[in-house]
Amino acid sequence: MSTELRTDVLVVGGGVGGVAAALATAKLGRKVILTEATEWLGGQLTSQAVPPDENAWIETQLTAVSYADFRQRIRRHYRDNYPLTPRAAADPLLNPGLGHVSRLCHEPRSAVAVIDQMLAPWQSAGRVTVLLRHEPVAADTAGEQVTAVTLRRPDGSDLTVTADYVLDATELGDLLPLAGVEHVIGAEGQDTTGEPHALPVADPLNQQAISWCFALEHRPGEDHTIDRPAGYDVWRTTVAPFWPGPQLSWIDVEPVTLSTRNRPIFRGEPGSGPADDLWHYRRILAARQFTGTAFTDVTLVNWPQIDYWQTPLLGVDDATRATALDGARDLSLSFLYWMQTEAPHPVGDGTGYPGLRLRGDITGTADGLAIAPYIRESRRIQAEFTVLEQHVGVDARPPGAGSKVFADSVGIGHYRIDLHPSTAGRTYVDIESYPFQIPLGALVPIRVDNLLAAGKNIGTTHITNGCYRLHPVEWSIGEAAGAMAAYCLDRGVPPRKVRTDHTHQADYQRLLTDTLGVTLAWPDEIRRHRTP
């Protein structure tokens, strides 16, 4: 077995951004190796089991062609392989789960199948090589170049990959410390960024909560109660200083107003239809859209009760990080056990829903939880340009100005600035943002010439990461990084030159728009649009 490989572009991290980067690189004629630490490509969409959060214009022609293709393939996957009702099959905007969080709530493994289909022709052509369960453990550098990355194989042996360009698309920016790339973690201070919603001073250990998600179905009359988790008694009595009730309860915080709300899993009878409850919010299979009796509703639990904010993942030693990951898993299982045994019913005196059943077959695990935790915040490169709240936040911009226009835009996106409770004990920060652009300068490190950020590790702040971290934005970031690597190889220029040279920048942007079908700017009326 070879211990060394050579390629044009190495993409480390097979999440949403990594997949988009590999596709773009291959389409533009270059060979790419795509590595992933888990057994599934897709990151947020798959191994982390988070239905896509998307902008209000996602069904329009403003959406990047490749991401629109991914979404249509998801719908085709259900039409081709599932016994849909005639009404569901005919719906051009088919939403398999009818969940409220997205217009396309689907199973994680369906996204795995579609991603494999999208990569398949490029793998057959020899342009894409996928290495699953390969984790980066070291990087070699020479001056301002990353010369090689060493990956740990599933059998414990090492594989070294050399490449002209290296893209970090890992969930936590794992290559940055390995390659000595300047980066930040946690929260910047208002004294440095001037952002209205930043902390007064920086706190590197102030990081967004992680969540270990899981899929559930409900079978009334059956008992699927799990074993009592080890930390159940602790979680059952935990009340955070910034939270209005116990961690294991239906009581939580409305993110925007910070008012207390009581939102149970069911408002009425299970399966009774849309309601203001937890069950329908991220439902990924709606039984009524399928024929026969084999199907039940399945929902995806990514709810405030499983946000783990006790311990950060970054800036700590390995033992502390392991404690955090174990704690997140224990919290999720404890919340499930509480729902099965003690959760009060919204009507009457009943408690517990023992018919709640884990669907590990849907999330790809034996224990029922997702393969990996949902990561909201990564290490972030010190970039040529850093996106601040003053560029995209409604309250931080002049009245009616819309978002900042970036001449070096490589894509567009939109989401509220949405920060979950943090490891420093800060509650939600959920504020309005304008539809925004992705500046090329945010993908380019301040020093290293041949490494690009291709995911949540771009030059944002703790604050603006809250709106740049979602699925379609990460896809566009990865696509732009992959295209940049191919462009630089073809023209023999580094990314920094492309950004600063107007001719190169224009040529690269035409490559994005004309060849890949990327939208670089919102229409002005949308750029100024407010969606409270």
TrEMBL record:
InterPro entries: FAD/NAD-bd_sf, NadB. PANTHER family: L-ASPARTATE OXIDASE, SLL0471 PROTEIN. This is FAD-dependent oxidoreductase. It comes from Plantactinospora sonchi.
